[in-house]
Amino acid sequence: MREIPDHRLQIARSGNESTCSLGPWVCLPGHCGLEAGRDIVIAIPNLMNWITAIWSSTAAVCLTLAMVHFLVWAKSRGSWPSLLFGISCVSASVCAVLELELMHAPAPGVFGELLRWYHVPLGILVVSLVWFVRLYLKAGRVWLAWLICGFRLVTLVLTFSLSPNLNFREITGLRPISAWGEIIVSPIGVKNPWTNITHLAGVLLMVYVVDAAIAAWRQGRRRQGLVVGLTIGLGNILGIAFGEMMNRGGAPIPFTISLVFLIIVIGMTFELGMEVLERHRLVLRLRESEERMAIAAAAANMGLWEWDVERDEVWANEVIGKRLGFDGNERPKLERLFRSIHPDDLEKTLGQVHEALEGSGEWKAEYRSKNDRGEYRWISSVGRTEMGPDGKPQRVRGVSIDITEQKEAEFSLRQSEERYRVLFERSKNGIIFADIDSHRFKYVNPAAARMLGYTVGEMKSLRVEDIYPPEVLDSVRRRFEAQRSGLIVEAADFPCIRKDGSTIFAEISTGLFNEYGETYSVKFFTEVTRRKEMENALRESEQRFRATFEQAAVGIAHVTPEGRFVRINRKFCEILGYSEAEMLERGVGDITHPDDLELDLKGLERLLRGEIETHSREKRCLRKDGSIVWVSLSVSAVRDEAGTPEWLVSVIEDITVTKETELEAQRLAQELAHISRVTTMGQLSSALAHELNQPLGAILRNAEAAELILKMEPPDLQELREIVSDIKQDDHRAGTVIDHMRSLLKKREFQFERLSLDEVVGQVGGLLNSEVQRRRASLTFDIEPGLPPVSGDLIHLQQVLINLVTNALDAVSDMPEARRRLRVQARRIAADAVEVSLRDRGPGIPEEHFKHVFSPFVSSKSDGMGLGLAICNTIIAAHGGRIWAENNALGGATFRFTLRTEKEGNPA
Amino acid sequence: MSSNGSIVFVVDDDLSHLKSVARMLRASGLSTQCFESAKDFLHQRPLDSPGCVVADLQMPGMSGIELQEALARTCNPLPVVFLTGHGDIPTSVKAMRRGAEDFLTKRAPKEQLLIAVRRALEHDERDRAKREREKELRVLFDSLTPRESEVLAHVLTGELNKQIAADLAIDERSVKRHRTSLMHKLEVQSVAELAQLAAEAGWSRME
Asked: What is the model's pTM?
C-alpha cells in the first residue's frame, strides 16, 4: 500500500465498482495487497475536511450567540426573547453536532438511533423559536403557537415509540457519498408516513411566522418583521425541503438543518447589531440631551429631582444639592428634603405630595425652603408621578426653581403699586392726569370727581376746558404750554366749575408724567372753599362762645394750675363783688374761706394729677366786702395733647340762699330732735327717777346707818369706812345718770367724733334699764367683737337707739312677757360700714304703714306726734347712713340703720 | 325686838342699796338677812323663821309683787314692806291691796322705814300667835266625833236639844250626852263660850 502523505486510509468494501471513481485518492489494485474491484481504499486527508469544519463552526457560532443572548438576559431580567433565542441557539448547536455524527454514522442502526434523538433538540429549537417570534415581534397568533408546540410534542412521542424512528420505517443501509471532499453517509430506507406530521408542523410554523411578520410590519416595526419573517421563513422552507429529500432516501446531500438555522442566526445577528447600533445612538443622544438639560438646568438655576418612591431615595442635580448642602452621589430620603421646608408651608406641601401620589399624578407647589446657609428661599416645584406596572406610584420626577427674587420683586411691585393706588384713591386732594396734547382726562381719582360733582367715569370723557369757567381758559392754556416746557405751575384759589354749574375754589399744583410715549399733565387739586367756610364758622363760634361766657348766669373763670385767674366773666365778678381787673390780680386762695381752703386745694391737686375728672363741692367764698357767699363750685381741667393740664375752668354758682335754707332746715331738725329727746325723757321720767333714787336711797341709808354706828360705844370704824366708800360710789352712780340726762336734754348741733359702738349702746342700756324692767321686758345686746369705731354724734345716736327701743317697748307692751324680748345687734357689713339693728317680737308693722314709717306726723300711737322715727331718719341721714324697717319672718319687726366707720388715721 | 329671833329679810337686786338698807337696820338693832333676788329668798330663807321682808318693788325676774304672792301661799306668810325707787300710784295700790305691810320710797327717812319694819314684825308676831291658837283649837275641834260635830253645828245655830234630836233622827238623850261630851272636850262652860271658841277657830258648820 502506498502511503499518501497527509492522508489516512480507509477501506470501503463493496461490490459496486463505481464508487472507485469517486475520489482522486484511489488505491491502485495490487498496490497494497487489497483485493482489486472489491476493496476500496479511501485516502482521507488528515487536514480537517469541509463538512466537519462547517458543522463544527456552526455549532460554535450558535453557542457563541447563545452565550451572548444569555448574557443579555442575565443582565436585564425580563428580556425573555433573548433567553428564548439563546435556547434555540443552544438547540441549533446540539443539532449541528448530531448532524455531524449522523453523517459519519458507521451503521444504519446507529443512524436510526441518532436520528431519533435528533428530534429532541430540533423540537426545542422550534418551540423556542415560536415563542421568540411571539415575544420579539409582539405579534403572532397564540393558538397557532400552541398548536405548533403540540405537534412538536406529538413528533417527539412518535419518534420514540416508532422504530427505528419517525422518519423511516426501516433503514436498509448507508450509502457513502462524497461531499466537499469528504465521504459521508446517507441513509437508504423506507419512508415512514408519520413523518408527514413534521411537515405539517413546518407548514404551521411557516404560516405563524409570516402572519407575525406581517403584523409587526403593520405595527411599524418593519425591519424586525422583515428580518425575522424572511430568515425564519426561509430556514423553515429549506428545513422542510431537506427533511423530505432525506426521507425519500435519494438525496445524496449532507444533513443541513443546522446550516439552515445559520440563516436565522445571521438574520438575528444583523437584527441584534442594528439594535445595538440604535441603542448606542440613543445612548449618545440621551447623553447629549442630558448634558444639554444639565447645562440648561444649571444655567437656569433649575433643580431637577427624582424620587424613587419604593426605595425612598431622592436623586437631585447639583443645583438642589448645592442649595440643600449634599453632594451629587448622595441619595437622601425624601424626609431630608422636607426638613428644609418652612414649617408654615410644610403641611400644604405634604398634602400636595399625597395628592400627587394618590390622585392626579401632577404635582405643583410653592414653598419656602431653607438652604445650607439657613436662609429661606421661595421654591416653585413641578413634578409628575410615574406609575409602575402594578399601578402604584414608582417615582416622582420634577423640577424646582428658586423664585425668591421673583417673589420679592413681585411683592415689592405689588406693595409699591398698592402704595400709590392708595395714595391716588384715598387722597383728599383731587388728582387728574390730562393728556398734554388733547387735553383729555386720562386718570381721575375719586376725590377729584367728588370735588367737581362728577363720577370718575364721567370725568374721563371730559377735557380740561370743561372744568374751568370761560374767563380763565386762556390762562389755563398758557399754563399748559408753560408746563410742556417743563415749568411747574401752581395756582392758588383757582375757580373751577362743578357739574351742577356752581363754582369752587381750589389750590392747584401740577407735574409731568410720561407713559408709553404719551405725556400727561398731572394736576393736584386742594379745595379751599370748605376751608374758607370753616374759617368763618370758627370766627362765629368764637364770638358765640365769648357771648356765652360773658353773659352766662353762672360765674366762669379760667385759672392757671397755680391758681391765678386769667379770664373771668361778669357773673364771677358779681358773685364775689370784685371788678374784673381786681379779680385778675387775685388767686383762688384769696377768695376762698380759710376753713374750706385746705379741702379745696386737695381736690385741685387730685384734679391736676388726673385722678378725678372734675372737682365739685360746695364751699364758702369771701366777698370783697368780707361777707361770706356760699357757692357750688365745679372745676375741670383743660389738657394739652400730652395730658398735661394747661388751665382750669372753674364754674361757680351762688347758692347762699339754698345753703341758708339748708342750714335752717338742719337747725330745725336739730331743734326737733331736741324736743323729741326732751319728750322722750319725759316719758322715761319715772324710769329715770328710779335710776336716780336707787343710788340716792342707798346713800341715805348708809348715812343713817353711819349716824347710828357713831352713837355706839365704841363705833365700828371698819363698817364706817365701808359706808363712806359705798356712799362715794353711789354718788358717782347718781352723777353719771344725771350727766347722761343732761346731755340728752341739752340742745346741740351735730358733733361728729370717733365713737365706739360699745360705748353708745352701753350707755343707752344703762339709761333704759329701769324702763325695760318696769315694762317687764328684756333688752339684750350683741355687739360683734372688734368692731371698728364709727364716726358720729354720741347724743344723737343714743337718741336714735332710745327712740327705737322705747318704740319697741310700746310695740311689745300688749304681748305676753315671753315675747317682750328686744335684741340690739351691731355688726360689720362692709369695709367701711356697720349695721345696728333692733329686733322685737311684737306684732310687726302693718303692711299699709310700711311706706310711712319714717314720715313725720304719722303715728300708730294715739298719743304720739309721729316724729320719733322721722327724727331718727334725719339723724341717720346726717350721719351718711340709712335707716329702714322690716318685718321678721317669725313675727315682730326689725329696725336697722347703717353707720360709716371712722377711717384709719382720719381725725374726727 | 330681835329677842324672839325675828329676822328682817332684805331683798333687792341693787346690791349697793341692799347693803345700805341692811346696814341701817342692823345699826338699829335688828337682825337682817340679805338676798339679791326674790327667787334666792324663796329658796334659801329659813322656813319657819319669824320676821318680815323688806323688798324692792322692781326687780328683774320675780318682782316684789310676785314675791308677796308667792310668800302668801306658804305656811309662813311673812309681812312685806315694799321699797320703790319711784312709786307710782297703780303699783302701790295693787301692792297694798294684796296686803303689803307698807309701801315706802327708797329715799324715805329711816324713822318711817323703822316704824314700818317694826310694825311688820309686830304683825308677824301677832299673826303667828293667832295661827298658833287656831292650830290648838283645830286640834281640839278635831278631837270631836262626827256625831259630836253634827250636834255642835246644830247647837251653834241656837237649836234646842229636842229640835236637834228631830233633825238628826236620834233621841233627845243622846243629844244631851253628845252635847255634854263636846262641851267637856272643848273645855267650855256655856253655849256663849262655845260660840266664841268656834268663831275663834274659824269652825263652821260646813266642816
From this structure: 0.39
